[in-house]
Amino acid sequence: MGKFKTSLTAMAVVVALGACSEQKAPETSSSDVQNAATSQQAQFDNVLLQEFKGPYGGVPAFDKMNLEDLKPALEKAMELNLKEIEAIANNEAAPTFENVIVEMERAGAELGRVFTYYGIWSSNKSSPEFREIQAEMSPKLSAFFTQITQNEKLFERVKTVYESDELKSLTPEEQRITWMTYNSFARNGATLDGEAKKRYAEINQELATLHTKFSNNVLADEESYVTYITEDQLDGLPASFVKAAKAAAESRGEEGKYAITNTRSSMDPFLTYSTNRELREKVWRTYYNRGDNADEFDNNDIIKRILTLRDERVELLGYENYAQWRLEDRMAKNPENAMDLMMKVWPAAIARVEEEVADMQAIADEEGADITIAPWDYRFYAEKVRQAKYDLDSNEVKQYLQLDKLREAMFYVAGRLFNFNFTPVEEGKVPVFHEDVKVWEVTDKDSGEHIGLWYLDPFSRQGKRSGAWATTYRSYTTFDGKKTVLSSNNSNFVKGADGEATLISWDDAETYFHEFGHALHFLASDVKYPSSHSGVRDYTEFQSQLLERWLTTDEVINNYLVHHETGEPIPAELVEKIKKASTFNEGFKTTEYMASAIMDLKYHTTDPSKIDPDTFEREELKKLGMPEEIVMRHRSPHFGHVFSGEGYAAAYYGYMWAEVLTADAAEAFMEAPGGFYDKEVGDRLVKYLFAVRNAMDPAEAYRKFRGRDAKVDALMRDRGFPIPKETKE
């Protein structure tokens, strides 16, 4: 979910440092190094290192990427980058914004290109061969980035610029990236000496290996544990799901069977519709036990080691715990503020779960099921409650949710809000890494100006990590010549049978819009420097969460939600049912997410020596009053957001923090004369919430959009929860 994430610890450092791998060889000028690099670049046979060629300002050569090129490309790119680093660090000229910060923004081009391909192998087309390279290179990359952050001469030059009088004369964006660069060094070990600095580097290397191992263990369980069922076990399952499950089995060589793959997109609808309770339990346990099967891919020991190392590392920097370090430069500022938000919402969420379970139990009793609602029953009986309370059948709604039509709806919204036009790129004109991937050119509707490209990789397949995410292969910058955007959305929808529409659930449709929101954030950017694209984790999900709201606008519903067989628009009475049921099952959705977010904070504010992951998860959730009928959305052994890298570590709460902004911003549109397509509010949205990226403090940017800070009571109204007294005005 949300921005591109990789299991590589070093990549997290790249994000943290922005483009801080830009430097030069000793006693040579910037132009000399650049010319030498250009000359050397021309001699590269390795396509992964080469500048992007072809149309649209150059595009990745996905059709020519070979795995045997990856390791030598990474090694060469690191070598080139370190030469740039040394040049900046050893430049005898007095440190200035131009010869330190700008040069750092410029450097590392080759490595950036290699990481583009690395990300494809890691997320979209993994293999045992790639994972061997990943395991070998992760600690080496970590050591490489640590070498940069611990370069004392470089840090002194950065610090000099940060503390100089020149800073006051820079633009706000330039001041901000100078601060971010300095802060990244200071927070990542640059201030340490001697043995502490050495130990910091050792910890980073071991963490890189552990993060990779954690991620690969989860992927191994997702690939290995497939539940095959037969025709007599299909009761209750929608025809579209049955066809997709049959195709999934055939693709795995299991003719005559039906495959329930170990991904959320397959598990969720099976648990919702299958009448076979025994199979529901099996599929549920298979999914939620990923990384927790007491075998070679078990992640519990890895979790404890990761927590121990993170705690030791931040102790070297003088912090009490990892969460304190992590949140210092986020909107929340500290774990106490983050937990305070969680605790304002948690009581209402679990109270709603109690109501939801009572409704489900009543139906089960009425039907004579003779059961007590268990986790594998929740979705099944929730669907029955939905139909009973709102006369709303999720499968009926699904008939109007065609993947292609929803994509057209997203384009419509992008046209209204951002003035973007999406045109399919002729097949073969832009290389892709899989036949499922399609590409669109994005232009300004009025001027025709080229904005960038949008790649879409929508379907689940072996070797592709689960979930949905967005990324860029190139971001918009102007400091060194204008660079246009190459953005990508990636999902794991179960492909419809040949010649038939791919139908998805309402939740999946929201996720589709969500990830497209990230893409629009990339495409709408109007910043000068690469570092301005580095995200503030409890803010970066806000823009994408907000875009989900346009799925329920009349313009989208009336024009794009049409029946996949008849082409008839979704009936008005069904739309009304959807809107009336908008807060249905909100207890489940909020609680399963918040349990993960709260546990993330608890893991990173507790002494790791006192943590046994399996016991800790169970006991802490019990203290919270976690309903027995629900589990964490991401149980600890497969919580990749937190343990396969550091992007969301101690920061998974950020989705809820962003939801407060989302609910409050949505009310700004609801209060406007033109609703969700109001021109004035829409212009402020683009200007302050999308185009600015991280070139402005997020809190300031939001105030410019809204005229004030966001209020949590908007979130409570949005979810149909009672508003806590202390938040009422």
From TrEMBL:
A GO biological process held by the record: proteolysis
Organism superkingdom: Bacteria
Cofactor: Zn(2+)
InterPro entries: M3A_DCP, MetalloPept_cat_dom_sf, Neurolysin/TOP_dom2, Neurolysin/TOP_N, OpdA_N, Pept_M3A_M3B, Pept_M3A_M3B_dom
Enzyme class: hydrolase
Family statement: Belongs to the peptidase M3 family.
PANTHER family: DIPEPTIDYL CARBOXYPEPTIDASE
Protein name per its UniProtKB record: oligopeptidase A
